[in-house]
Amino acid sequence: MKCCRVQVYVAGQKIDRFYRIRVDMTYDLAIEMAELKKSGYEWIWPLTESIGLYPGYQLVKMLKKLPWLSWRVQLVKSRWRNKIKKWLKKERWLNEWGVKILPEKEPFMISNFSDLSTEIGSNCPEIIKLRALLRGRNLYFSEIISGIKEMGLRDQTLLEVKKNLISLLVADVVEMVPANLPFESFCLRCGHTELTLTQCGICGERTWYCPECQSMGESLTCRPLFRRIDQALLRNQKMQEVELKFSFPLSPYQKKLSDYLVSGLKNDQVSHWLIWAVCGAGKTEITFALIADVLERGGRILFTSTRREVVRQMVDRMKKAFPKVSIVGLYGGSENKYFQSQLTIATIHQLVRFYHAFDLIIFDEVDAYPYQGDQRLKNLLKRSIKKEGKLVYLSATPGDDLLGQVRLGQVEMLTLPARFHRKGVPVPFLENLKLPPYPDFKKMPKEVRERIEETIYRDLAQLYIFLPTRRMVEIFGQTLHKYYNEKEISDWVQYTHSQDLNRSSKVEGFLRGDYPILATTTILERGVTVPKSNVLVLYADQEKIFQHQNLIQMAGRGGRSLYYPDAKVWFLGKRISGEMKKARKWIIEMNEEAKKRGLLDA
Fold first, then answer.
1. Which residue of 92, 289, 450, 462 pairs with 533 in a disulfide if CB–CB is 3.0 to 4.6 A?
2. What is the tens place of the pLDDT at every residue in 119-129?
């Protein structure tokens, strides 16, 4: 159903001296009548011929707002039907969209059609599992088919799936909507607010598409979305026991923040928190008790981030922390996209398939690109959480927008200026050097080689080397690899960036300690942890790419482990920029604040 045409109808059931009225649209009137009969409806009056999905959706929405066409209509012969006819004639936009109203006829008496009394929509396992598949979801018909296969259900014809969907639609369990709304210029799938006019390749009529949805499934005005709100409420009592394992004991201050979050879950006055913590402070672990509490009460949780590497590593961490909880990781190229789990860990772009699904959302690195400044992603986040749900933002460098919400009282802020091992964040060394225009390693000043050799030979540590662009990473990585090849240790060097097809395997190898040197872009500035590592940022003065937030995050890659808390961080540039100074100043101030609170050892 990439292109869907519908018929708008009115159906009724006599209850004493009143009618229960239903206004809706359907893609198969015969199947709809069978389902309506099972629900007790006696007659149906088709209002339109087969029309486009969007005008059908708008017509139904407008009819439902008419006060005299409620579910209880007094039985006065033809009076309300004449009102509908007069109202339809006034709506000129219907003609513009090619909507043809059927000539007035007596309504079909559904109860007279015994041949429609079929087993369609019975309480069969396929419908029960289809209902479960769509819980808190926002899916195309093609995605529903993929989900059915993923769930291991028996092979079903497209007609069987359509019948089962109508059963859920008539029961008002599932809603069918156009993928985007051109009058409102809004994509219901991803939240984007700019649509482009085109022509449908199936029906040949004008339609609109969303350019942002192209990579994850085309959003067309005539393409239906099937969505279902997860209406299950968070219980007030425990439904199950959840085993929680920490990889390290929480510090007293971490425990204090953790307990505060758990108690705040019961506070209806607070729904959003910001945990502002330095890199490596263990802010994720602070949320573990909150996660356990929500899971024990039967809730569903989303842990989201903008970066795929963060999600992949977080899946492993969460499985260790919650060994008996169902967990799924969603990112580009992942499997089990339709598996319903207690704890979902996903990149924020994967939220296009969720619809009011989660009791708790934890958003790690909320300040990271591309979330900041992208209203579409903010719409996705808002749509994915339940009405009564709670949201926790995690950040080491929150932006002005989030801090503004804190000042307005919309978000409550909790701060953690110290790492769990009671050592400060490494303060970077700022150096201005004559770096070459192109990062050929052999043309680099000797200080660059000295920093690398100091790390791998003397400190016996691993080294992140950050560069501004993909092209610079490739040039530096290739020339550094060639240099160490002459020393017969070229397998010590790897380099990667967002377009590298082997990116995941290289990152995983570096995290395992398979090699000591990794040159990369900002894709690894957040969310990844190496127990013993130093950090070298080259061309750190390129302020358009390396802003102080990025530099703070890069510095935060070092010293995260109790085994190597005093890491070394170098910012090297042709000059010492204002952003470099700002990042260093911020780190020093946070360390001083932690000292004042008694959170750092001498």
1. 462
2. 444 457 888 88
